[in-house]
Every structure is written in structure tokens, then in C-alpha cells.
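Side project, low priority. Logging it here so it doesn't get lost.
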Amino acid sequence: MGMMKKYGKITIFAGVLLIFIFILTCETQTVNIDPYYITGPRQSKEEFRVLFDLLAQEEPGSEDEFAVAREIAACFIRLKDYDRLVHFLSDRAIKNPDDPYNSYYLLMIAYAFMQQESSPIAALYLELIVKNYPDFIINDESIHLVCLKHLISLVNNPERQIWYYNELISRFPESIDLGAAYFMLGQACEKIGDWEGAISAYTNYLPYTGTTIIPGFPNADQYARQQVDYSISYKDWTFESLPALRAAIENALDTGSSWQLSRIQAKANFFGRSWGQTEADDARMVDFNIAEFMYNNRIRYAPALDASSIASEAFFRTTGWSSYLPTCYLYFRKIYFPQDPEIHGRWEWAGVYYGEKF
């Protein structure tokens, strides 16, 4: 009887052990790991085996499965094995079209192509995500926002950039520099000849002047204000050529007519400033009161334009304005305003610099 009990216990133990081994064998057989993905040094290979084994056990489309897949992708990135990264993530997205994390997988594919300097292919994936896949937040940032930022730097097509900036402005106004976005939208609109869109963008940019720094555009504030002011004002102060403008100025000074000189003065963006001031110093600019300066004074002018004059701007030295400010340089500028071909390329008297040049 004792032997039967002992034998029975052994039999039961052996049976349990056999069942356990059978279960392990079944699980091992169901985890079919593609040897293509087991790469790198020995430690990496072991890590990949463990991760792919875990991946097979997780619920498809679950947060846990995403966490494992993300770690596998991170391992490929650490090895700089972008080909396997693309294969792995592409396979997941194709086989699981309804996976809620596909937008992240496609973003990582785009990242891999960017690392391989294949920007056009990366841009295709980024646009695909924004247009066809739902957005979600990861690391406290929107996937779509990340895509749009990359697209702006990767794609030089102005029509596409208009769409990107409009998406950023309408969907993520609190997550971007709105002023910079409006200004760059205006630039993109100009490139395709959409002058109405450009003026609208520059108008929206104006409230941000003085607070936004736009790389590559140090005079963005002045430029936007100039374009908007040109669009809403009369342009009867412009001249066909620089010699014509200079002749009109000289005639007004010769006759001492402040009224005639004021008619030549630009009605948009005219400034009066010292040489040390810049376009950003609007608060310190002083109005140039022509009548007051010319009263009882004989204004003289140089026989030629200043030597620093160039094809798009010129300086004209004048003297005799007042005892405390005897010298002024009149500033002439070639107008850049493609929206209106009638004045684009003409000349204007745009401002005055007080005192001698530095």
C-alpha cells in the first residue's frame, strides 16, 4: 500500500512535469522568430530573442505590445541598423492595418530614412501619417505636430509648405511660434504668386512684431509691415526711376517748397532715425516734420548720390535743415511689391537718416 502511494505520487509528479514540458514546447514552437532580426553582438542577439518572444505573447494592438515593439525598434536604432528597423516596422503596419500605434511605427520608418539621408521618402511617410492616420500623444508631444515640423524642414515646395503651415496654425496654435508660422506662410504664398494670401498672413503676423525671431529674416518686422501698408495705401508717391525721384527732390529743395517735398515723401513706412537706430527701434523713431525743418532754411544737396548707394537703395546727402541738425541723408529705396506690378520695381523716398554717416 505504501509503495502504491509512493508510486502514485511519482506518477503524478511525472505527469505534471510532462505536461509542463509539453506546454513549454508548444509555446516555443508557436514563437516563430525570423532569424533576420536576430543581429548584432551576442548580447544584442539575446536581447532580440527575449523581446521577440515577449512580443509574440502580447495582445495585438495592446499598449504592452506597443511597449515591446518600441523597445525592439530602439535596439535597431542603437545598432544603427535602419534597414532591419524599416523591415520590422513596415511588416507590423502591413499585417496589422488597424493597429492604433501604426502612426508611431510609420514615424520611426520616416526617421530611419532621414538618418539615411533619404529625405523625399521620409517626407512621403510623414505626409501619409498626417493625412491618413489618427494622431496621438507620445512623450507629451503630438505625432502629427512632430511630422509637420519635419515636413517644413524637408520639403521646399511652397505649395506643400502652405498646407503645412496652415495645419500648424489651425491645429497647434499653442504649441508653435505663431508669429514665425504666419510670416513663413506669407513667404510661401509669395513664392506661388498668392499675394492675397501673403498679405493676409503678414497682417496676422503684425501683432507679433518685436517678440518673434525668425532665423534668416532679421528685418521680418519691417518687411511684413511694409507689405501690409503698401497693400492698403495709395501709391502716388512712387517714381519710375531713381534719376526721376532725385530730380523731383532737387526741384522741391530748390524752390523751398515743403508742400511739394511732402508729396514725394512715402505714405507707407516712412521713417526718421539716427544712424545708430534700426528697423526694430520703432518706439524711438521721430517724425520728420518737413515744414518745420524747411522754415527759413535753405537746404542744399550734394552733387551726386553717396558712394555707398547700390542698385536697390541710395543715400542723398543734404545740409542746412537746422542749427542743431545741419545734415540729413535722404534714403531712396527700390520698391519690392510683386502684388502690384504697377509699383513693383519703382522708386520711393522711404526715410531720413539724421546726422553724418558713421
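Brief comment: Residues 38-231 form a domain with the Serine Threonine Protein Phosphatase 5, Tetratricopeptide repeat fold (CATH 1.25.40).
Revisit when time allows.
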